[in-house]
Amino acid sequence: MTRESFEFEAEPAQIRLVRSWVRERLAAGDVPAEVAADVVLITGELATNAVRHAAGPLRALLIRADASVWVGVEDAGGSAWFDPVLPEAAPAGTGLTLVAACSDRRGLFHRRDGGKTVWAEIPLAS
Predict the structure, then answer these.
(1) Which of 6, 68, 107, 109 fits 84 for a cystine, CB–CB 3.0-4.6 Å?
(2) Domains and CATH numbers, the chain
(3) Average pLDDT of the residues of the chain
(4) Stretch 50-71: mean pLDDT, rounded?
(5) What pLDDT is recorded for position 33?
(6) What is the CA radius of gyration of the chain?
(7) From the CB of residue 63, how many other CB atoms can be counted at a distance below 10 Å?
(8) Any residues with CB less than 8 A from the CB of 92 and at least 6 apart, and which?
(9) What's a Gene Ontology MF term here (predicted)?
(10) The CA-based dihedral angle spanning residues 34, 36, 39, 41, taken in that order and rounded to the nearest 10 degrees
(11) 109: confidence class by pLDDT, cuts 50, 70, 90
C-alpha cells in the first residue's frame, strides 16, 4: 500500500494542479487507464467542492491498495458539503453525482481537529 498527499490552496486554479498530481502518481504505478481516469475525475470533483465550500489549507490524498485506489480531500473545517449516504439527491450533472457513479464507496470523516476528509474508493477491477 502506498500513501501520498499534495497540499494546495483553496483557489480554483489549483484544481488543475491536483488533477495533474494524481495523474502523474497513477502513471507511475500499474493502474489501468480507465480506473486512472475515474480517479482523476473524482479527485478533481472533490477538490472543486472543497475549494468552493471548505476552509483551507487543503490536502489531496491518494492511497493505492491491492484491490482499489482511495482518494480524498482534507480541509480545515467548514460545512459538510458532501452527503455520502444520498449523493443521488444532488442535482443531475453535479460533481457528487459523478463521484457516486465512479466509485464503489464514499464517505466523510470528521476529524478531532475540526476538519474533515471526504473520500471515495475506486476498485482496480470491475
Answers:
(1) 107
(2) 2-123 (3.30.565.10)
(3) 85
(4) 91
(5) 93
(6) 13
(7) 16
(8) none
(9) protein serine/threonine kinase activity
(10) -70
(11) confident
Mean pLDDT, residues 102-108 taken together: 89
Q: Mean pLDDT highest for which of 34-38, 49-53, 78-82, 94-98?
A: 34-38
Question: Which residues have CB under 8 Å from 118's CB, separation 6+?
Answer: 46, 49, 50, 72, 73, 81, 82, 84, 106, 107, 108
Beta bridge partners of residue 105, listed in sequence order: 121
> Is 50 in contact with 24 (CB distance < 8 Å)?
no
In order of 38, 110, 123, the CA distances from 31 in angstroms are: 11, 29, 10
Q: What is the pTM of this model?
A: 0.86
What number of residues does the chain have?
Answer: 126
**How confident is the model at residue 95, as a pLDDT?**
74
At 79, the amino acid letter reads S
